[in-house]
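Our consortium's second objective concerns turning raw sequence data into structural hypotheses that experimental partners can test. To show how far this objective has progressed, the report includes one record in full. It was chosen at random from the queue rather than selected for favorable results. The single chain below, 45 residues long, was entered without modification.
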Amino acid sequence: MTQTTDLDLVNLELKARAMRAAYLRGLVSAMFARLRSGKPAHAAA
């Protein structure tokens, strides 16, 4: 068994944040692509 250090936890947290950011970026770009193509979407501010 390996010892889990604080550094390991920080690396995991950074990886999780990067994945979440990439996912959100994908959602936003898909939303903008839909808006640009002229299909009706829910009203954005």
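The partners drew two points from this record. The chain has one helix and no strands. The CA atoms of residues 28 and 34 lie 10 Å apart. Both points have been shared with the crystallography group to help prioritize constructs.
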